[in-house]
Amino acid sequence: MFKGGCRLEFLLVLCGLELSWSCPHHCICYTAPSTVSCQAHNFLSVPEGIPPHSERIFLQNNKIHRLLQGHFSPTTVTLWIYSNNITYIEPSTFHGFAQLEELDLGDNRHLRSLAADTFHGLGRLHALHLYRCGLSALPSNIFQGLRNLQYLYLQDNHLEFLQDDIFVDLHNLSHLFLHGNRLWSLHQNTFRGLGALDRLLLHHNQLQWVDRLAFHDLRRLTTLYLFNNSLTELSGDCLALLPALEYLRLNDNPWECDCKALSLWDWLKRFRGSTSSVGCQAPAELAGKDLKQLRKEDFPNCSGSESLHQSKTWAGTDKVSLKKEPHPVPPPHSHPHSPHHEAPYYPSPPSPLPHPPPSISGEAQGSEGQPGVAPPQRPGRARNCTRQRVRGGKGKGQNEVHTLKEMADKEYSLPDFEGGKYDHTSPDGTITRRKHKCPPRTTVRPPSGVQQATNRAMFSQPLVHLSTILGALLPVTIVHILR
């Protein structure tokens, strides 16, 4: 019994020694979770002898040149190879790595290009680091299937253009870092599919042109950095598609504060989040001023109709952006990749503020004797009112009539948001949310024909007496005239 226990203990020691012997030279290995740390040892290639079931592998700050199939085990969960000299990654290097959650290839400045299928099959990957890799382009389907990716680091590369729908599979991406590149345009479908995106950093690029629908899928975006680019204008339509936006940075762009800036100026007046200054560079009389601080009088050469059309267009876009349509129909592009040949813009039809329907004014008139008509139900909303109808409208005073009309005007003049909810800005600037309010019902009155018949009955008796008096006076009058 004792001898058997000694033998078991000896076997365990041997197993422990075998595990320690399998650790690569100059590396440190741990268990639970199994970890191999080979950082900062000037390795020119991936060291041999990495245990086959290692979960965490740290190879940063070496001089590794190539990554090939078989260098790592498919059981790897975390792999750090940043700050090396990687120039080539064999496309099949990470194939079958179904457990990989974090891959850091950042700061490999001579990588420059990646095969389209390099990351295919990494279904559990939640963080991918490709910053400072010298990348000048990305294959259109390089992120295909990465549906659990949450963090994508692409900053400080040489990217000039992003393919349409390149991020379309990244349904759970929350952080996208694209700053420090050479991007000069953002198109309608550049960010399509990023419905969960929270932060989008685009500063320190060369952006000259942003499509009015570039952010149409970013309903949850709270942070947008566009500072230090080459933007001279940005449509208010573009920012109106970001209902969750809280932090916006637009400084250090050569803004032209002329008529093209009206929609952005109007949107900034309504924005309640945090924003930077928007310094004007042109025209000369406004140079150095903040667009946010300008007044309507500072746009003297802009026609009122132009300003009104722009305001209506992007105000209507607020509503369009909340529709549950998969994607808006892209406008035709004659030169889709050139900001100097901007594609014609086909805005959605202007949506003027709704006015009270005729029934509301008819209701006020009805209180003065004309028949009232029940107000129609608002289109797209089912009435769900349970309060009782108002009775006894004949005795309604003048103040009550004006109060009722004022309530109706508020009801029909406020825009709709998300199935019956809408905001109302009070005189003190606060916003109160009202939901599912029904239009006031009209007092029930008899039909017009019945009302007219009743009026004739009321006047028939006095007319009989008047005809009798005239019949008696007529002979006396004739005799008096003959005399």
From TrEMBL:
<keyword id="KW-0472">Membrane</keyword>
<keyword id="KW-0812">Transmembrane</keyword>
<keyword id="KW-0966">Cell projection</keyword>
<keyword id="KW-1003">Cell membrane</keyword>
<keyword id="KW-0325">Glycoprotein</keyword>
<keyword id="KW-0449">Lipoprotein</keyword>
<feature type="region of interest" description="Disordered">
    <location>
        <begin position="298"/>
        <end position="452"/>
    </location>
</feature>
<feature type="compositionally biased region" description="Basic residues">
    <location>
        <begin position="380"/>
        <end position="394"/>
    </location>
</feature>
<dbReference type="InterPro" id="IPR050541">
    <property type="entry name" value="LRR_TM_domain-containing"/>
</dbReference>
<feature type="compositionally biased region" description="Basic and acidic residues">
    <location>
        <begin position="397"/>
        <end position="426"/>
    </location>
</feature>
<feature type="transmembrane region" description="Helical">
    <location>
        <begin position="463"/>
        <end position="482"/>
    </location>
</feature>
<comment type="similarity">
    <text>Belongs to the Nogo receptor family.</text>
</comment>
<dbReference type="InterPro" id="IPR003591">
    <property type="entry name" value="Leu-rich_rpt_typical-subtyp"/>
</dbReference>
<keyword id="KW-1133">Transmembrane helix</keyword>
<dbReference type="InterPro" id="IPR001611">
    <property type="entry name" value="Leu-rich_rpt"/>
</dbReference>
<keyword id="KW-0675">Receptor</keyword>
<dbReference type="GO" id="GO:0043204">
    <property type="term" value="C:perikaryon"/>
</dbReference>
<feature type="compositionally biased region" description="Polar residues">
    <location>
        <begin position="302"/>
        <end position="314"/>
    </location>
</feature>
<keyword id="KW-0732">Signal</keyword>
<dbReference type="Pfam" id="PF13855">
    <property type="entry name" value="LRR_8"/>
</dbReference>
<feature type="compositionally biased region" description="Pro residues">
    <location>
        <begin position="346"/>
        <end position="359"/>
    </location>
</feature>
<dbReference type="GO" id="GO:0098552">
    <property type="term" value="C:side of membrane"/>
</dbReference>
<dbReference type="GO" id="GO:0042995">
    <property type="term" value="C:cell projection"/>
</dbReference>
<feature type="signal peptide">
    <location>
        <begin position="1"/>
        <end position="22"/>
    </location>
</feature>
<keyword id="KW-0677">Repeat</keyword>
<dbReference type="GO" id="GO:0005886">
    <property type="term" value="C:plasma membrane"/>
</dbReference>
<protein>
    <recommendedName>
        <fullName>Reticulon-4 receptor-like 1</fullName>
    </recommendedName>
</protein>
<dbReference type="GO" id="GO:0045121">
    <property type="term" value="C:membrane raft"/>
</dbReference>
<keyword id="KW-0433">Leucine-rich repeat</keyword>
